[in-house]
Amino acid sequence: MKMPAQGSIIMLEDDTRNWCGSFPSITAGVNCVRWSHDGALLACASDDKVVTIYEYGGRVQSAGSIGSKSVVNVEKYRLTHTLHTHSMEVLSVEWSSDGRYLASASMDNTVVVEVEDMHFLYLMTMVRKIAERIVILDTTRGGHNGPVKGLSWDPIGKYLATQSADKSLRLWTTDNWQCDTVITKPFSQSSQTTMFSRLEWSPDGQFLFAPCAMNNQGPTAQIIMRKDWDTELDLVGHRRAVTAIRVCPRLLSYVDYAGKTIQVTCVAIGSRDKSLSVWVLPRVKRPVVVLQRLFKHSVTDMSWRGTDLVVSSQDGSIKYLSFREKELGTMLTSQKMGNVCESLYKIRPAQYCNNGSGSLLETPSKANSSFIDSPEELMAKRKAEAAISKELAKSTESATLPNKPTQTAAAKALTEQRQQQVEVRTSDGKRRIQPIFLGSTVDDEPAPAPAPVQSRAQPTTEPMLTDDPMTSDGDEGGGR
């Protein structure tokens, strides 16, 4: 089997973990990939200073010839956006919980926030300047003085947390994009030997978990309390620096050792010591499980799907961990999560509304997808376009053509007279036609106005926007 080249993005099936496809990155290695919360878009951060966004287009009807040994894709993806907003390698990228923002962190000491809903970009043209669509969080706004290694969106929508090699964690307010709080104490002794710092919030926004912290010269995962940004609590046990923290997307109903049912946050911690630990907080003081030497190298990233956890490593391998209900508990429904947040903050976050979708709005990228999965869909689309064209032609014709005047009796008689033709033949066989007086005692009928020329272009709902590097606002290099 021919495997994809280095730097490619590999897709695996959710349930079977079988090969589902791959597609190459732009030009360099990929550091981070994140699905939008509705599953329609995939953002990729890479070493070529670029953030690329792909659109999922459904399953492929034919996955190659029978007996072929080469790897074939069974899913379709289309490159929709290329964001040239950084001057150095991009280390992390994250979608906001409500789908409105996309943030990227880079070695150039900056965080770039796309302030437009990426789905709305499908429905609008690039009429505004690039500067109006992005916010750059740098030193002019109280930003970092070193490479930014990780970021995480507050599930309540109020903050964006970023962590840097300058041994600080910064909290930015999303209403004015200013630095609100700087936390340095837990990270002052850290050696910053990790390439990534994957931090994350708890599902209810009560806690922020940050890697690369130190306590008494030992590596820890820092727990930051939302109420007053207190940093007294941490998670210990790993022998080397913590690289990644990922939290189960919802709270869990967990039965503790005393048989009491409590609501907990499930946290997975990966480290440079090649191991993984899983915790349920806040009332359980020991990890649920610790997996020593799970890899041959550092843990680089993780992702939850329900109570299943996928872990990647710098050694190039991926582990899939599945937990039973009695080990971690039962996930709360979207409705219950909304109730929890509403009781804490008097608001219900978008990701816990509308049956748990990432956005309250219908996804335009799905409704206006450019992918056609079958001939039947293509024929239906063409028929719909033809019907629209026909209706437009009718409405245009009725609006522009004057009403035809009623023919009078005199004009009718004159017309009948003109139709009579007297013809005789001479002895040699030639025809002779008697001329008829063509004069008229009534005004000629006015000629109808010419119909407007109909465009041959068919109406379309496809987006007019392109974010190709050479066509974005005329900015060479596609910089946003």
Automatic annotation (TrEMBL):
SUPFAM superfamilies: WD40 repeat-like (SSF50978). One of its GO terms (biological process) is DNA-templated transcription. The keyword Nucleus applies. Gene3D superfamilies: YVTN repeat-like/Quinoprotein amine dehydrogenase. One of its GO terms (molecular function) is nucleosome binding. Keywords: Chromatin regulator, Nucleus, Repeat, WD repeat. Residues 393-480 are annotated as: Disordered. Pfam families: Beta-prop_CAF1B_HIR1 (PF24105), HIRA_B (PF09453). It is found in: Nucleus. GO terms for cellular component: chromatin; HIR complex; nucleus. WD repeats lie at residues 83-113, 141-172. Residues 28-328 form the CAF1B/HIR1 beta-propeller domain. Residues 395-409 have a biased composition (Polar residues). The keyword Cytoplasm does not apply. Belongs to the WD repeat HIR1 family. This is WD domain, G-beta repeat protein. It comes from Ancylostoma duodenale. The lineage of its organism: Eukaryota, Metazoa, Ecdysozoa, Nematoda, Chromadorea.
